[in-house]
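Hi R.,

As promised, here are both runs. First protein below:
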Amino acid sequence: MTQVGFVGVGRMGANMALRLHEQGYRVTAVHDRNPEIAKAVAHDMGCEAASTPARVAELSECVITVVSDDVSMRHIYASESSSSLLAFAQGRLFINCATVTPSVHVDVEQVVEEHGGASLEACMASSITQARQGTLYLMCGGKPGAFERAQPLLQTLGSTVRYIGKAGEAAKVKALVNMVMNCNTAALAEGLGLGEALGLNLHVLREVFGQTGAASRVLETDGEDMQARAHECYFSSAHAAKDSGIALALARSAGLTLPLAQATYEQYTRLVALGRGDLDKSAIAELTFRGRDR
């Protein structure tokens, strides 16, 4: 497959599209709910800024979707809409990269197959830099045939491509990855916030954390940003709240109570309510450090 379209070209989708474009794929069309974003990305690659998802599918052999939530995902695969991806699903492969409820991926696979196409979830445990460099960590779920068909393209986008199992399984793993990451982020914010309140040197504290049992990937990516109040968005607080909510819903369905995940979810929900959902997940520190605006 050399003709690829994108639905959803925000921070992640745009950089994935640019990566494929540079690696010799023909990006045929892009669509975004914000038409101006689609036009800008299309201009960079000399492709069409499609007015509908259907137009993207019409022009492409493979369509990669990077949308934000369950509602958006169901909208672009709506059976009753002539503007949805299903209008030209016959023979197409759809690779869905959004973190959404696992059952949505199951439903999408079913409806796509009913319309003659194939669907694969390719959940990403990476950020903008990795999308641009083609070093994403991709967790895939769906039919083995769809996974094999997508392999060359996925290998261009990711340095690690793992097949997890049937539709919905990769989404479950991704939800747990983000749940644990969010809990780690909240714990780090509390540790650094308490350290500052105790008058400790936070540069030294971060070094000690990194050399002991307090070490984590989040410390590497977010520790300095929390200290400096630098919350440029790589993974938004709004998405952190959404993804922790997905994991908590899975826990309820399994009959489990997860108090740490629940507390983290409530913190991120509070950030969103304060109008800070578009800040990076590191902004949870704003709720912890003494003297910061709440």
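And here is the second one, sequence first, then its structure tokens:
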Amino acid sequence: MINQKTITILVSLFLLFNVTGVDAQCELANTAFASGEDIKYDLYLNLGLFNARAGRGSLSVTDANYRGENAYKMVMLFNTSGLAGNIYTVNDTLTSFIDKDLRPLLFTKEAFEGKDYSVERQSYTYDGGKVKIRAFRTMNGKEQFDEVVTTDHCTYDYLSILPYIRNLNYEGMKSGDRHHIRFIAGRKPVNMYVYYQGISSVKANNGKSYEVINLTMTILDDAFSNQKDALKASLTNDKNRIPVIIDTALKIGSIKAVLKDVSGTRYP
């Protein structure tokens, strides 16, 4: 028979789990990158029948201070130019602050895509067993939403997903195996699966060939329908897990970044 003392202990453990559970779930050790990493990319724009080299991009990581907390600041730039830029303009700046446990703290996106200009912001607060996310977006100067959403799952944005996947353990996985996470699309957390697509060899635009881990990040809506590949990535199959290829969905088509140069990696 369970006595009162046992019940008290069980209740205490339950409350402790619910207070610290989400924070513990969200913590992930970073073994892949360090402050000072800087990657340059050539961009390729895919708009159906139109598929051409389109400009330059970059991904950088630096140490930062976010509201008194030690953090990483990640910045991704996409800038189209030439004929591709005339056909469809993409000038995007994505910025993400993540803490040293790789939890997202703040995400912003300033985007010129086609004829539209949008500003997006998601700020994260970890409060006991919950994650509160304030999601804000304007489109062409008009506010689309400004809401606070609460979830009891770790939730990632378009940029903080990259350090997350770079530090996952893919050992022993087979093609089609997957990791489930939560992802915020606009103002609502949705289900995302990181699909392992096997190992291959690719040649980057710096002339070097890399053995890479291929991944597809697929968004599912709340009804588990309307499947959408939001992001594809090929990471070096070594301790650095450098993103050699990043293929990102746009409102129409996609833009692919192929590594041109890299410096400041954590490992030689």
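A quick note on the second one: Confidence is low (pLDDT under 50) at residues 4-21. Let me know what you think.

Best,
J.
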